[in-house]
Amino acid sequence: MAEEPRYIILLGPPASGKGTQAARLREALGLPHVASGDLFRENLKNETELGLKAKVYMDRGDLVPDDVTTAMVMERLSRADCASGALLDGFPRTIAQAEALDEALSAHRHQVSMVLYITAPDEVLIERVSGRRLCRTCGESYHVTFNPPRQSGVCDKDGGDLYQRNDDKPETVGKRLQVYRQQTSPLIDYYRRQGLLVEIDGHQPIDAVQADLRAAIHG
Ligand code: AMP
């Protein structure tokens, strides 16, 4: 019989390292990395209706409405490459999204396997956000000081141009942290109550966080 699909959630504030860690975990686990923020940015790049709708919320540092977000992520999870599960990054971000995910998975007799909650102090998050740069072509993430590309402004992977996200600019970061505290942090208790939460100290070098994540997964 096929193995149960695994749905592993990376939870944490903006710039806690979810995306960076997921990109490194993906191959080790053999699971696709499904990042709601990346899906929105891809839609925006392709100027789809969904992307243009999401942009208004993203630029303000607000969450995109639950129904739009949930439909987009569920569609992604229904694709063939997610047959053995997924590494979810940035989704769910509200209790309503978490409930919708539980419901959709349980319809297939599946469930969330584990929630890795990555923490870091606010001042560290702000420092990371302000130095973050993304590749315009492949979306790879860098930090000008902590995780710099070999050549400044150029992606190591494909030579693409590096840019700063609109919502990483100082005027939006405070709003995103506030939105996280109000709307996303209730998920910590939601998953703790289900016995799924593992807390990971994200204020360590990238490799050390990765090692802790792998240890938690292989428990
Ligand atoms: P991220 O790349 O995860 O920081 O996401 C960038 C932006 O995309 C967020 O600030 C939101 O505006 C939007 N977004 C990403 N994931 C979600 C989600 N699960 N629910 C609502 N909005 C989201």
- pLDDT below 50 for ≥5 consecutive residues: which ranges? none
Report the sheet with the most strands, covering strand number, pairing sense and barrel closure: 5 strands, parallel
Strand order of the largest sheet: 2-3-1-4-8
Residue fraction in strands: 15-25%
- Termini separation comes to 24 Å
User: At the third CATH level, what is the topology name?
Assistant: Rossmann fold
Shape: globular
**Please, what is the average pLDDT?**
95
What is the chain-wise order of helices and strands?
Answer: EHEHHHEHEHEEEHHEH
The gyration radius over C-alpha positions equals 17 Å
Q: Which molecules are bound besides the chains?
A: adenosine monophosphate
Helix-residue proportion = 40-55%
Count of helical stretches: 9
- CATH architecture annotation: 3-Layer(aba) Sandwich
Judged by helices, strands and strand pairing, the structural class is: alpha/beta
Q: How many structural units, i.e. domains? A: 1
Number of strands: 8
What is the CATH class? Alpha Beta
Relevant CATH superfamily: P-loop containing nucleotide triphosphate hydrolases
